[in-house]
Design brief:
Shape: globular
Radius of gyration: 19 Å
Order of helices and strands: EHEHHEEHEHEEHEHHHHHEE
Low-confidence stretches: none
Number of strands: 10
Bound molecules: 3-hydroxybutanoyl-coenzyme A
Distance between the termini: 54 Å
Length: about 290
């Protein structure tokens, strides 16, 4: 199915980027948020990103792209959408609640997609009455910059639904990989053990937070060291991934190290809370965890 009308439910870090790139690709985009305040913040965030692109000569008209986006707090407005992408917080119950509430409103051919780091796609699909039309679309942060889109086929996804996800991904300019419905898919299956092991290395005295980050940037050419990346992704999200992947694989490579657990218990969730492995009150940020 050629998608012209897409919806993004949840317009935070990931959702606003998905809405933005979809509108830039010429699609008609509906964003759904929980409250009018959250919706206004989300639309403002998209406008700022579009204005920035225009001011740097990377977009002809921010206004034309912005006009393709409408917002609502009412899920009934989803009824004409061909593709609905959920991008709410990485809490399984929240995602399931979203699917339960929107499923009855959607048209019979609508394809549903979850943007999740590690939760089961089929587990979410089964709370809807359309498991065959349900796929995963896993985006990467920042969505407007990262080239990849993982398209996830569940055990019940139809060929049509998967092809719809792939066509949509190509239309918004992403490189597509087809990934299995296994916790973490491809990228997080490889990225999480690396990040967990960086924390383990720190805990066992291999180096400071800054030195490990400097080592992996300079030694491997990674754009961010592992602790900067962990803070960037959000430590609550990473912690949830460890729980989901530990449960699925029972492999110590996915087990949350104590420091990660304590940071999350303290509410130090990374950049979004102002403190994680680094303290973002200072410029440049200073390491905030010491052995
Ligand atoms: N939103 C939109 N654009 C952004 C951005 C953001 N948040 N941050 C940076 N950019 C753009 C800048 O405007 C700039 O564009 P330009 O080249 O056209 O001028 C470009 O990206 C480069 O930005 P900067 O020069 O400011 O900074 P960097 O060169 O350090 O790049 C970065 C920033 C792109 C974030 C880079 O550090 C990077 O690639 N980091 C790794 C990010 C990563 O690994 N993401 C995946 C995380 S895992 C994930 O998301 C999966 C989930 O399930 C956990």
């Amino acid at each position: 199915m050629d998608v012209d009308r897409v919806a993004v439910i949840g317009c935070g870090t990931m959702g606003h980027g998905i809405a933005q790139v979809s509108a830039q690709a010429g699609l008609n985009v509906l964003v759904i948020e929980q409250s009018t305040e959250a919706l206004a913040r989300a639309l403002e965030r998209i406008e700022k990103a579009l204005d920035r692109l225009q001011s740097r000569g990377k977009l002809d008209s921010a206004a034309v792209v912005r006009d393709r986006i409408t917002g609502s707090t009412d899920v009934a407005t989803l009824s004409d959408r061909q593709l609905v992408i959920e991008a709410v917080d990485e809490h399984l119950e929240t995602k399931l609640d979203v699917w339960r509430s929107v499923d009855p409103v959607l048209g019979p051919n609508t394809v549903c997609a979850t943007n999740t780091s590690s939760f089961s796609v089929i587990g979410q699909a089964m709370v809807t009455g359309r498991a065959e039309q349900f796929i995963g679309l896993h985006f990467f942060n920042p969505v407007a910059v990262m080239n990849l889109l993982e398209v996830i086929r569940s055990i019940a996804s139809s060929d049509t639904a998967v092809a719809t996800g792939q066509d949509f991904g190509r239309r918004i300019g992403k490189d597509i990989v087809l990934a299995p419905d296994r916790a973490g898919f491809i990228v997080n299956r490889l990225l999480l053990p690396y990040c967990v092991d960086a924390i383990n290395a720190f805990e066992s005295g291999f180096g400071s937070i800054e030195d490990i980050d400097t080592a992996m940037r300079g030694g491997c050419g990674y754009p961010m060291g592992p602790f900067t990346l962990l803070d960037f992704v959000g430590l609550d999200t990473v912690f949830t991934m460890t729980e989901v992947m530990w449960t699925e694989y029972a492999d110590a490579r996915f087990a949350a190290p104590p420091t990660l657990r304590k940071l999350v218990e303290a509410g130090f969730l990374g950049r979004k809370s102002g403190r994680g492995f680094y303290d973002y009150a200072s410029d440049p940020p200073r390491a905030a965890v010491h052995r």
